[in-house]
Design brief:
Length: 257
């Protein structure tokens, strides 16, 4: 396993807090640029470039799970404590890493994660709905990254080609993570955690998010009426304020002497 590259978005100050960002599937580390800018200048912010970035071939799956890849990226950051921030697939990768044990993480922000309570039965309907949600999120993410409107026929061709490249292997990476999420050992993840959800996110199911919060000893659900699946981009100032509040409530976010 090759360690994912870490990109420094903001150097922060020597005594300031540190945040490490984990992007979602078919996204890039640059997705965190705006959120980083919305945090105060004292923040050191680092974005990991994970192998599930946009355009990947999904061969990374045979070398380790998402949590393993996050762990490999964190190893290069030294012993400084940090707040972990993940989006969607990246949020679940953060969750897997925390379940495995990450002593340097002193708080976590999970933006638009997905969670299946262990008692929630997996059916073919579950599979089909998950695939529809996945394709919609891939489409919305591509539209967001384009930053301009493509002609509908051109955009549809782009989406079709992207979904063909991703294929079953890419979708199953997400679906298997969703299915396994309710079985993660989370009772020992004793750090402040915020689960960010949005009423404008069609893939969000609030009862499952509240179930996730109950599994984490110190988690809260933060809901925004206007938040969509990409709230970390489209509502970066509000998300930055939530991160600042979580940092203020937590301890150990600053470097130790």
């Amino acid at each position: 396993m090759t360690s994912p590259q870490a990109h420094l978005l903001s150097p922060g100050t020597d005594t300031g807090p540190c945040a490490v960002f984990v992007h979602g599937i078919e996204d890039t580390w640059r997705t965190w640029t705006r959120l980083s800018r919305c945090l105060g200048p004292q923040w050191r912010t680092v974005a990991l470039d994970l192998p599930w970035r946009a355009g990947n071939d999904y061969r990374w799956r045979w070398s380790g799970g998402p949590g393993d890849w996050v762990g490999a990226g964190l190893e290069a950051l030294g012993g400084r404590p940090f707040l972990l921030v993940g989006h969607s697939f990246g949020a679940n990768a953060v969750l897997a890493r925390l379940a495995a044990g990450e002593p340097r993480a002193t708080a976590a922000v999970l933006a638009a994660p997905f969670f299946r309570p262990a008692e929630h039965r997996v059916t073919w309907e579950t599979f089909d709905l998950s695939r529809e949600t996945f394709q919609r999120q891939i489409s919305d993410g591509m539209r967001l990254r384009l930053r301009r409107t493509a002609p509908p026929d051109v955009f549809e061709v782009m989406i079709a080609r992207t979904c063909e490249r991703i294929g079953p292997v890419g979708f199953l990476a997400v679906f298997e993570q969703y299915v396994a999420s309710g079985h993660l050992p989370l009772s020992h993840v004793d750090i402040p955690a915020a689960i960010l959800i949005g009423e404008a996110d069609p893939g969000m199911f609030r009862p499952h998010m509240e179930a996730l919060a109950r599994r984490l000893p110190r988690a809260t659900v933060a809901a925004g009426d206007d938040f969509d699946h990409f709230c970390h981009v489209n509502h970066a100032p509000e998300v930055a304020r939530l991160i600042e509040e979580l940092a203020a409530a937590g301890a150990g976010l600053r470097p130790t002497d």
